[in-house]
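Recap from last week: sequence in, structure out.
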Amino acid sequence: MHTLKLGPVLMSAALVTACGDKPNPVGPDSPLPPAVASLVINGPDYVLTHSTTAYTVNATLSDGSTRTVTLSWSSSSVDVATIDNAGRLDGRAHGSTTLTAAHDGRSASKTVQVVNNYGGSWSGRYIYRACRDSGIFRDGIGHDVPWCRYLLNRIGSERFTFTLSQTGTNYREVRATFGPECDSFTGSGTIFGVVTADGRLNLEGTLKSLDWFCNPDMDVQVGGWDTNLDGAGNMIGRWAQNRTIFGQQGSAYEEVELVTMSRSATASTSR
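Predicted structure tokens:
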């Protein structure tokens, strides 16, 4: 009987084959991959209704590095704004919502105000609801008449055109620019204001009125402007104004109401 002896080379190969079926153990000092330590949402605090705005997130890892991660986004009030998992927020209605971005057990939140968008060119008509005057105004045919009688006897409602802009990072700030136009309240100048917490527009400032055959000798101090948007996107409301009639020794306090005011062109609102 003969005994088969394996040579050193064959024995080594057998050992390698046997050991190759088992995974290499991880040593106790092997480093773990860095975990997400914190998330920070980047984007504006204010956005406009009917606009789309991109939000991003900075993810900081436990080793101090940063990287892009796949996020789950949500909005606390989908009636006010919605956001998809790419971070695109759509402003739907005036109000406040809280955005939340989550990843791997970590999350970050940010409160965003969605503000009524009044930007664009507006045109419409208005009527006088009340008037108190002092002094005399000489009309275009040389008659001296009380200012309020002149206003309230005019046939029909008056034309009204202007342009509103909401720019920058705080869309609550609004600027109204009035261009020259004859026989209308429309004057030259700029007045400023804000969109209030409930979505109403308030403006104030002084304009150079171009009323009565484009007579430039009237300053209009606009105050108490209080308008909002109806369901169709038209502006409704009223305001009060003090008019100083230079060269006519007259002045008047007037309360005015919008009959209809529609937006003929809307400025771009995407950010």
